[in-house]
Design goal:
There is one protein chain. It is built from twelve helices and 23 strands. Helix content is 31%, strand content 26%. The relative contact order is 0.21. The chain starts with a helix and ends in an 18-residue tail after the last helix. It has a domain of 183 residues: D-Amino Acid Oxidase, subunit A, domain 2 (D-Amino Acid Oxidase, Chain A, domain 2). By secondary structure, it is α+β, with helices and mostly antiparallel strands.
Amino acid sequence: MNFLDTSRQVTVLGAGMVGVSCALALQAKGWQVTLVDKRGPGEETSAGNAGVLSRSSLLPFNRPGLWQTLPRMLLKPGPSLQVRPSALAHWRFMWRFLWHARRQSFEATTVALDGLIQLSAQTHKTWLAQTAQQHRLRENGWLWLFQNEAAWAGSAFSREVLQEFSVATAVLRGAEIQSLEPHLSSQFQHALWIQDAASVDNPAEVVKAYADRFLKLGGVFRHSDVRALQQQPQGWQWQDASGAPHWTPNLVLAMGPWSESLLQASQLPSQFKAHMAFERGYHRHFKPVGGVHLQRPVYDTAGAYVLSPMVNAQGEPVLRMTTGVELAGRDAAPNTAQLEAAENAVRRAISLKEAVAGSDWMGSRPTTPDSRPVIGEMPQCPGLWLAFGHQHIGFSTGPGTGVLLAELMAGESTSINSAPFSPMRFS
């Protein structure tokens, strides 16, 4: 008899958006779930994102044309991409990442991500209602801002792809931008209003609300720093920082940027060392000048920042500025160059008070060469399920990941095609 068919106990490692989503989705299918993290739910990478839930996130960074622009990007780093020396250790990943900047791979990725994003959006709405967090959701889209004709023309490929996927958008020019967002400066000549998008005012609080529901429904949360995994005759053993062993019949690894290093430390047959790198990102909060506000997140394509209206843990309004991508080692020291450049650009776009003291944040987002997360059972390791590699869109794809993983673990037909996310693609 198959062991998975008789055991309904599972431990989920990682309590970010993805891990909490896996725990909730498995619990809904009758599993007894234990959620493990060294910090509280939503306190690591999930705490720092822009809070945007958009089908426009189906566009990966490695797309056709990247080869042509790469030399300029490396020779003259801009606010959208910074490459630190520590990233060079991942040169094999970078080669594979560039290899996937082909039309065939790009098309497969966009289709796969769009399905996962739409499944996640539906699930977010359900879970926000179940946790009485609907007030955090704005369904008024977000804006891509362009300062001149050249920048607008350079976005043609992205706009064409969004049109192919029937993503609802509207083109705004000049005064039309100010009519939608009156407090933006007049420096932007064009804007693309991504109407098929939503956002939340505090991503970390959303994750915590989902985790609270998981606990109220009988789930268990354990504070622990997981150091190693070991396969057992009937299940898995994980070891905490003190060396104490903990057994579980089934294990879900959803530790984001720490997932691959745990597999290595456990001496498991991990094929992800050459298939994982880190898109680091930063954020900084600002108190808005009295009467100045935004209705929705905005993305300044020249400044490469997203500015999102949010509320902090005390319920006070703030504007969160998130930066472009920094390719670096996961644990490399922070570099505030992108933050400072982004702040200079933000202050040209809208009136702000001083930055909120202590609000600077940095997080590492794990990404794969084809820009698709890894969702499925680990090859040669029955009972070990993987859910990581969501790059910078884990908040937009986490709930769908949980639903898809729960369906796979139950042996059911899946809501979307699971093959593009299978760990087997790296074998």
